[in-house]
Write a structure and sequence with these properties.
CATH topology of the largest domain: TolA/TonB C-terminal domain
Order of helices and strands: HEEEEEEHEEEEEHEEHEEEEHEEEHEEEE
Number of domains: 3
CATH class of the largest domain: Alpha Beta
Strand content: 25-35%
CATH architecture of the largest domain: 2-Layer Sandwich
Largest sheet: 5 strands, mixed
CATH superfamily of the largest domain: TonB
Structural class: alpha+beta
Length: 375
Amino acid sequence: MGALMRGLAALCMTTLALPAWNAAADDAPAAGAAATSAPAEGAAPKCLPRKVIYQEKPHYPQEMRYFASNGETVAMFEVSPEGAVVNPVLRQSAHSSFERATIGALLKWRFEPVDPADRSYCKIYTQRIEYDTLGHVPGGSGRSGVESSHAPFQLQTADLSKLPEDFRYDTAPELLVSVPIVYPYEKLRHSDSGKATVAFYVDPNGRVAKTQVVSATDPVFGQALQAALAGWTFKPAMKNGVPSWALFEYTHEFSQDETSYIFEFQLPSLLSAYSGGGKLLPGLEQLDQPPQALFHPIPVVEPTYAHKAETLRLEFVIDANGLVRYAHPIEFKDERLAWAAVTAVSRWQFQPPMMDGKAVDVRAVMPVAFAAGGG
């Protein structure tokens, strides 16, 4: 990810002069509309913006309606000469449901094609999208009375007096990007619930430097939470005007009631088809052509975790919309690496798999390679 962002920073950048969309809970998708972008003020070097010829407006995520949560996402992406959005990178999203909605919509945008040899046009763009419930959730008015402990990704304020001096910040970190907490497939399959608490350090760069499982009703729940938190990024804590370290504990309940915001619970028929040995789902070899990964964040391993090089294998479902479901390792040695891979791939978005010209759910197996590192 660091190499990718350094590469992006070296290219021409602009911010789309489009509305900061307010994706409300009751919104329908917007029809395609022509719009013209303009370079961000102070952008250097100067470049010509591409004209947007189709915009897909994101839906407010269904799984977030229980919480009546507002949110904001910021994404960076390239535009190919043909006008397609490629290589999207999420810069801000406090909940992974907003990530899926934002990336899914942007991948459908189309820009006016340009001559590949013409270097005068901007190649990199950023887009901000706001999500607002407007007080509308199923069953009536906004759920302002939902307990904060049930709200997604609320970090508890630490008692700084009980922490070492190095962790006594003046301003707490602000969560910028959260990655999904993946429900372990075997637990999901058998409707097993559980709970885990993980402590983690946020370094002065806003990255999670180290995680440690404090408690877990089953080790796999702790591993799943640990892997997700390793990928979270923050606006760092501040102390005496400079970025500082911070220490938090986060508790997550893995359950199948309405307070859960795990994607897979919305698809009981797909889970049933897949968990029955996958015989009801076609394999990649049966498709018209292999689906292309359009959004593919890499696995994140905390820098303090020492590990050997390994190539492991994951199995998962790509649903008819191109979203990854039920990712789990089938060959691995290091459980921490396996969970880093599962967490990353669960965020991926593909072109919809096509068989005989129709979008279908499909089984997939993929190797993931890790170099030695950490420590």
